[in-house]
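Support reply, case 0932

Customer input (verbatim):
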Amino acid sequence: MEQAEASREAMPDWQSIRVFLTLERSGSFRSAALKLGLSVNSVRRRIADLEALIGAPLLTRHVDGIRLTVEGHAILEAAARMEAAAFSLVRTGEATPFAETGEVRIAVTEGLGAFWLAPRLVEFQRANPRLTVDLRCAMESADVLRLEADVAIQLTRPTSPDLRVVKLGRIHMMPYAARIYEETYGLPLRPEDLERHRIVVQDGGQTVPLEDYVRTVPGFPAKVPITLKVNVSSAYYWAIAKGAGIGLLPTYASAIGAQVVPLDNLGRFGVDIWLTYHPDAERITRVRRTIDWLRSSFDPKRYPWFRDEFIHPRDLPGAVKGSPLPDLFAGFVAMTP
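Our regenerated output:
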């Protein structure tokens, strides 16, 4: 009996396991501390306590980060199973008749979140007044398996076999410029002309690298003058719209009132849009409703710019079914007396 009590007292607690998993995934004590909201010393103490409990060193420290020992790898596998079981327990508890209330977390790329989903949330909230939507717009993908979000929309296809993955549509992108840019610098008529123009690029997670686009455009110059780099879609759009340079934008920018014009003869690029969630999430009413709404928000029949085939922006108005889209940029236009 006393041995059983002692064994239970020697069991590692979940918080220590969570710290260990985060440290392994982050690669350093500092990064893990930032993710966990703890001090570096607190993370070190947790790991030291866990190592003392296990009776073996779990990692070694190096200039470029940490590396797991053999014992650390063994503990990592068990810890990951423990984490998966804990998350499964949470999901099971949420699948109740009361799940029409509460919070649902949507992770989405910053551009799609700010310019496409956020303006449509009003209709969803009117239909589901007891739900709180936590819309997390970021360029990095959320880890749905670790419950960083209930559902995620991303531009890179998830590879985990434990996730449900649905293709929502496709974003077609092409070069755009502002009228004020055209008045100041003129417009390129062919790819070779770009070496005499100003280029704006977005540099961040889940963005189209310039070199990927270049490979699809015959005659693209070996070097172009990149005059501005930004990491988020909102700043990227406004830089182009205010005349900072030429940049790639989704074709639906024209449909929602963006103050830019598409440039022909300079190629185009497309990326798929993926919806991902844990299969158990479908059993939760509020998440199921959110999934249905997200799928309808990217319905290619209603929103033709999300179809697999490319439709030129000038042809989009005639392809839209139903009521016309509002000018989503109207509120950003400076007022004049």
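We compared this against your earlier run and they match. Two observations from our side: The chain is about 35% helix and 20% strand. The longest strand covers residues 164-177. Please reopen the case if you see a mismatch on your end.
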